[in-house]
Every structure is written in C-alpha cells, then in structure tokens.
Amino acid sequence: MLPNESLVNFIFPNNAHIDWSLMIVIYPYITGLVAGAFVVSSLYHVFRIREFEGIARFALVAAFCFGLFAAVPLLVHLAQPQRAFNIFFTTHLTSAMSVFGYVYSSYMVLLMVELWLTYRDYFIERAKETSGLQRVVWTALTLGVTEYTPESARIDYRLTTFLAAIGIPWACVLHGYVGFIFGSVKANAWWATPLQPIIFLMSAIVSGMAMLCLMYSFVRWRTGRPYDYAMIRKLMTFLWGFVIIDFTIEVLEVFYVYYEHGHHWSLIGPLLSGPLYNSFVITQMLILSAIPFLVLAVVVIRAIDRKPLLYLANFASLLLVLQVLVMRFNVVIGGQNISKSDRGFATFHFEILAKEGVLPALIILAAPFVVYYILSRFIPIFDDDERLTAR
Questions:
Q1: What is the DSSP annotation of 287-330?
Q2: DSSP three-state, residue 338
C-alpha cells in the first residue's frame, strides 16, 4: 500500500497538457454577455418595465455587438477553422456541439431582424436625406422598403414585441446549452452536474446586466449626458435578484457534493483546497461574489440615490463582470486540472502571445466594444440622442 502523498501529482504522460485553453474560457463569457444584454432589452419590450425604455435600444445594440464575436474564440481554437461551416452541411443532431451552430445562427438572425425593425424608420429617413454613396448604403439598409407610415410603425412594434418574446427562451437556450455541454461530461467530476446549465444561464444574465451598467455609465460620462438614476436602481434590483439565484446555486452545488462525500468529493475536495483555492474560494466566492452581493443589498434596501448610487452600482458591476470571467476560468480550466487518472492535477500555464494566449483573448474581448463605438457613430443608441430628438 502506497502512502497517500505518493499519489499526489500522478498523471499520465498524455495528460500533461490542458487542451481547452483561454479561447474556451472567453467563448461562454461573450455568449453570456449576449444573453444578459438581450434579457434587459426584452424586459422593456415584453414585460413593460418602463424604467428600461431608455436603454432597450442600447441593450439590443450591445447584444448584437457581443453576438458578432461569440463564435470567434471557437474559430481561433479550431485547428481547421475553414471547416467550421461543415456543421451546417453535415447535420448531426446527436452532437451538442453541432447543435450550437443552429442555435447560435438562428439567434443571431432573430437579433438582426429585431434590430432592423427597431432602426427601419431611421434607415429610411437617412436614405431620403443623404446623397451619393451614403444614400446607396442607407437605401441598402432599408432592404428596398422606403416608405414608413403610422401603420408601419404599429406593425414593427408588434413584430419587435413578438421577436423579443421568443428571443428570451432562445437566449436561455443559447447559454443554457453551453452549460449543458460541460454538465454532460460524466467523466469529469467538476463539470458533471445537471445544475451546470442553470449556473451558466444565471451567471450569463448577471454578467450581461453588469456589463450594460458599466457601458451605460461610461458612455453617459464620456458624452456628458445626464444619468437615469431610476433606471440604474431598477437595473441593480434585477441584478441583485439574479446574483442571489446564481450565488446560491453555485454554493449549494459544492455543499451538496461535500455532504454526499462520494467519489466526486474525493476529487473536488483536493481540487478546491489545491489548484483552485485562490481562484475559486478566495477570488471568485469571497471577493468577487460576496462583496458585490453585500453592496447590491445596500443599494437596493437603503435609499441611496444619485452619485453614491452610481458609484456603488458600477463598483458592484465591475466585480461581477470579473467574477463571471473568473468563474468561466475555474470551470473550464479547473475541470481539466483533474488528471484523467483521477490521482493528481495537471498544471495550466498562461501564455501571452500564443494562438490561445492572453493577448489574443484580450483582443477578442475588446472587439465588441470597438464595433459598438463604430455603430454609435452612425446610428442613435439612446432615446435622448440629438439625431432622434431633432426629428
């Protein structure tokens, strides 16, 4: 009988390298931002949350920008990215990864149609006001429909509401599916749980709402426009609610495995007290979850308003955005830390300039914000934009 210490760090020679790296970490992260932003937009269009009227258009544009880059990390990760479109030509519905192609592409089509309906009247107006090349571009965006009547507005409104309604479950499917992929890997004790889709979905909504708060505050500060404090308070109320659900499920999942004390805990226990102690226990749960949880509780319960509300909301949102990113890292990399022999841990090493290194990941994460900035130069994002108020 070998002493326990001699079993530590025993891994097979072919298990020394972690295959799913930072690209697989930021892929569900960006996808989550899409779902969270779309939910905020739908809270106004479907559930008539009046406080979100001023950011419904902004949330929709943000969801579109994040959606454009949701699949880019996967393409970078693939050894043969030119074969990515094969999933559309070689249908394989029993593969969860293959189904992603259909779920993601159909969701993006829905998002683009809703965005087009939202801006259709503006496209028509610009097509009539401009000339030359600009006129050609704006006319192309109208898709040939250059008349806009009150009846058109009513039809667009109904269609937008309908698309927002079916978009909510579709957004939930899009991100719940990501958790489904990890949760269905039965051989990995850190991933294999039926709660994984729910955890991914709740954290996606949390990250999307928190990111919207940060973007909204930055844009309003940068452009010198007033803040809608009532909207920020309402957004923080919803955010706190989703944080409670997300945080509770994650904690219960770990405590359940601990209480069960079965084979999974014999692997997860050493994982949490070893490789993931700093990133999961200290960083994710104690710093990036508990602190914003308490801050949001103060914001929602106490009558904090104006600048203190703005500062606390952005502080909590920043921590939550980082919390979900760290959570994705802990899930993706943490699960691969467990060696295939179940008797030791593989080690993950950060690379800076490699294909799946830190720098490419940062570039991909920054790309949606660049696209948002470009779009904001051509179309009005907020309701108090002078291009809308001057009409």
A1: ITTHHHHHHHHHHHHS---HHHHHHHHHHHHHHHHHHHHHHHHH
A2: strand
Rounded Cα–Cα distance for residues 360 and 190 (Å): 27
Grouping H, G, I as helix, E, B as strand and the rest as coil, residue 48 is: coil
In one-letter notation, the amino acid at residue 381 is I
* 121: amino acid identity, one letter: D
DSSP class of residue 84? T
Model confidence pLDDT, tens digit, residues 106-155: 999 999 999 999 999 999 999 999 999 999 999 999 998 888 899 999 99
Give me the half-sphere count of Cα atoms (radius 13 Å) on the Cβ side of residue 128. Answer: 9
Q: Which residue has the higher pLDDT, 6 or 216?
A: 216
The CA R_g of the chain, rounded to the nearest whole Å, is 23
Cβ atoms of residues 177 and 197 within 8 Å: yes
Segment 238-255 shows an average pLDDT of 94
Read off the tokens for 96.
């969860």
| Tokens standing for residue 283 | 């960083």
pTM comes to 0.91
Q: DSSP class of residue 357?
A: S
Q: What's the DSSP call for residue 18?
A: -
Spatial separation of the C-alpha atoms in residues 161 and 44, rounded to whole Å: 9
Q: Give exposure, 163-200, as e/b (b: 16+ Cβ within 10 Å).
A: bbeebbebbbbbbbbbbbbbbeeeebbbbebeebbbbb
Q: What is the dihedral of CA 283, 288, 294, 300, to 10 degrees?
A: -170
Round to whole Å and give the CA distance between 11 and 342: 8
96-129 and 132-141 helices, crossing angle to 10°: 130
Nearest CA to 103 out of 25, 169, 193 is that of: 169
Smallest Cα–Cα separation from 21: which of 356, 328, 367?
356
Of 320, 104, 66, 292, nearest to 214 by C-alpha is 320
Average pLDDT of the chain is: 89
